Write the C-alpha cells for this entry.
Amino acid sequence: MTVLHEPPTSSPTEPTATEPATTGHAATEPAATTEPPPPWRRGPRTDPAPLLPETEPYHVLGTPREQPDADPGLWRELHRQLVLGRRYNQQATALTRQGRLAVYPSSTGQEACQIAAALVLAEQDWLFPSYRDTLATVARGLDPVAALGLLRGDWHTGYRPHAHRIAPLATPLATQLPHAVGLAHAARLKGDDVVALALVGDGGTSEGDFHEALNFAAVWQAPVVFLVQNNGFAISVPLARQTAAPTIAHKAVGYGMPGRLVDGNDAPAVYEVLAEAVGRARAGGGPTLVEALTYRLEAHTNADDATRYREDAEVAAWREHDPLPLLTDALRRHGLLSEEHEQAARDAAEEMAAGMRERLNAEPVLNPDELFAHVYARPTTQLTEQAARLRQEARTR
C-alpha cells in the first residue's frame, strides 16, 4: 500500500521550537526548549508528493495482494455483511413499492464502501452517514427498522445517536461533514480516543460544507476520515459536470491532507485504505480524504428514472464488477468459503428481511406531540402555541 509520510513539524520558512527567529540582534540567551506548536500554527505544507493519491485505484482482488488467508475471519465477515446488505437493499426497495416507506435511496452496488466503513471503526468512534448510508448504520449495529424511521416519516431520526455513535442520517447534502470535524476536534481537545468517519457522495463534494469541513479538518489536524462514494452521478448530473479535477481524491492536496483513490467495489481494498486512514487519524496524523470509485446499480431513489440519463450498457458493465460476486469468487479461489458459510449468511439475510416486512407492515402508532420534541432544549413560545393548536384540532376531528 502507499505509505503516507508524516508532515514536517514546522514550515521551512518558520523558526522551529528550538531555533529563535532572527531579529537583527544577537541572541544573548539560548532559547528554552518548548513543545512544538499546535498544527494550526504551523506553516502550510510545501511538498505535495506525500499527499497525492494513486494514479490508479488501489485494489486487492485479482492482484498479488489477494491474500485472504492473512485474515480469513475478516474476509468472511465482509462477505457475510455484503450478503446481508444486498438483501437489506432489496427488501427496503420492495417496501417502498408497497407504500411502507416514503422513499428509499438504494445503495445496491455500493455495499462494499458502507460495510467497510462500518467494520473499520472501533466502538468509541463515530459514523456520520448521508441519506444513502442506511446500510452502513445497520452494519454498525443499528436496528434495521430504526434505520428506516426517517425514510418512513415516523420520527426525526429513529434512533438515539449517542447510544450508537451514529449521527442522524442526513438528507441535506454534506451537512454532516462539518459536524464530523467538530466532534473529532472536540474529542481530541478532551483527550478522548475517538475518530470520526464521514460518508458523502460525489454530489456532496460540490457543496460548500465539503470545502469548509476539509479546510478546518486539515488546519486543526482533526482525527476524521472523509469517504467519498463516487457513484458517477449526483442524481442525473455526471461527475464531469461537477469538477474538472483529475479525481476527487486530488482535492485533498489543496487542503493539506493525504488523498487516497480506491476501487469502491473491492471490499478488502476499501477496508485496508480506511483502516490505514483511521489508524493515522487515531495516532495524531490528521485527516484523510478517500475517494471510492463505485456505482449505484439502481435508480437514485424510487422517484427517479435512471434510464433518462445513463445507458443500459453502462449499468450492465458495472454489474460485471458487482462487489458481492467479486468477493465471493475470491474466497472460493482460496477455499475459504464453504457452502455452510454461504447458507448461514443467506439464512440470516432472509430472517432480517422477514423481520423488516413484519414490523414495517404494521401501522405505526404516532404521537403528534413528538413533532415538537427535541427541537429546542426549552420549547419556544411559538412551538408551544403550535403544539396546543394541533392537539385542539385533533380533538375536534
Q: What stands out?
A: The first helix runs from residue 72 to 97.
